[in-house]
Amino acid sequence: MGETTKIEWTDHTFNPWIGCTKVSPACDGCYAEHMMDHRYGRVQWGAGEDRKRTTPGNWRKPIAWNKAAAAKAESTYVFCASLADVFDNEVDPLWRWDLFKLIEATPHLTWLLLTKRIGNVVKMTDPANGCRPLPRNAAIGASLPNQEEYDRDRMKLWEVKQRLQPVFTFGSFEPLLSHIILDKHAPDWVIVGGETDQGSHKARHMESEWAWVLMRQTRELGRSFFLKQMTNKAPIPDGLLIREFPT
Ligand code: SF4
User: Fold this and answer.
1) Among 3, 41, 141, 171, which residue is least crowded by beta carbons within 10 Å?
2) Residue ranges lining ligand 1, Cβ < 6 Å
3) Does the domain formed by 3-233 have CATH 3.20.20?
4) How far is the centre of ligand 1, averaged over its atoms, from the C-alpha of 80 (Å)?
5) What pTM did the predictor assign?
6) Where along the chain do its domains lie?
């Protein structure tokens, strides 16, 4: 579950454990759950189900990536986790402690911690709660698939930025499910993408206009923009294939 990834906006993906519960409209077509159901069958999804920690061999892979990254001038990104959520309430806090230790031991990597539980981040990194603090080489991202979720969660992400000072903040506007109006509390990096069919779950259509509007607002706010894909990997309109990284 550690690998050189096919996700366009990162260099590697790392899964410290597998398993999760759906908590957002963005979870409806959860790729990870579909993969477990149809390819591996190893982990049952949902509340009260066990999360499965990945192997010690998998946990050693970032150490090798870190060595390779030390020789490079540009940043090496690790997306954590594609088959789970780092800030899942049902994960043993000691697993998160171990993960943060690993992140600290790999200072040449920039870790992208994307969550659909952004409201948990401050309390789950607070030493007063017995938690290990957020490592200095971690960036924090929130899933913001529609206006309602953006309005509800952007200030939680902003609070994380102010209090924990991650490397940067990012928003995963994927799958993008509505037109969204941003404001000055938008994340540093805006990643936009349409959905892909997952078995019986048919992709919900992303209007290209929604992506254009986000791109223009990102420009006005001085943030970085990354267009990952259109719905079901349809051709990307001219002018919208912009793949910036945070500076
Ligand atoms: S948070 Fe991510 S891994 Fe968990 S159910 Fe939602 S989409 Fe799947």
Assistant:
1) 41
2) 20, 22, 27, 30, 32-33, 84-85, 116
3) yes
4) 12
5) 0.94
6) 3-233
